[in-house]
């Protein structure tokens, strides 16, 4: 019984990834192009999310600042989830809704990109960060699920929405992880061309 439950997780995850690949590939390609152009122009990527999505934000920033699969110069990405003094000060003095938006206002500039994670598409502090980014003439790449929620309605035609076609948070996060790796690989290929093994 227990083994069957474990197998069902693997099968559901694999089936969703295959189903999502065709649906999401054009949007992921758009995100790669947008990020590559921004980085090429000296801009940076700010990243935010809550819980597991905060881990995804930090994972993405680490891949850019460090490396993904090949040696290269560091790329400017900042996870807005990591400075506990900023997070707790803003949450205490203002509200939890502003923990990311204050940082976008402080660090974001026109031409930068906000990579925003929200499995539900309804995270209030991520929505506030998107509002702040749009006010600063930044572009947004939003990774969501569950139909995209309110975030899907906030985005402009210049932004990219990567919405996983599923309602289960764990499955959405698993596709978000593959998406992160696709974006990192795409940026590396755009910078250097070819395959890492060539």
TrEMBL record:
Its EC number(s): 5.3.1.28
Reaction equation(s) it catalyzes: 2 D-sedoheptulose 7-phosphate = D-glycero-alpha-D-manno-heptose 7-phosphate + D-glycero-beta-D-manno-heptose 7-phosphate
GO biological process: carbohydrate metabolic process; D-glycero-D-manno-heptose 7-phosphate biosynthetic process
InterPro entries named among the record's database cross-references: GmhA/DiaA (IPR035461), Phosphoheptose_Isoase (IPR004515), SIS_dom (IPR001347), SIS_dom_sf (IPR046348), SIS_GmhA/DiaA_subfam (IPR050099)
Gene3D superfamilies recorded: Glucose-6-phosphate isomerase like protein, domain 1
SUPFAM superfamilies noted in UniProt: SIS domain (SSF53697)
Residue ranges annotated for the SIS domain, each copy included: 35-197
One of the record's GO cellular component terms: cytoplasm
UniProt key word Metal-binding: yes
Residue runs in coiled coils: none
Further remark: The reaction produces a racemic mixture of D-glycero-alpha-D-manno-heptose 7-phosphate and D-glycero-beta-D-manno-heptose 7-phosphate.
Protein name per its UniProtKB record: Phosphoheptose isomerase
Species in which this protein is naturally found: Duganella sacchari
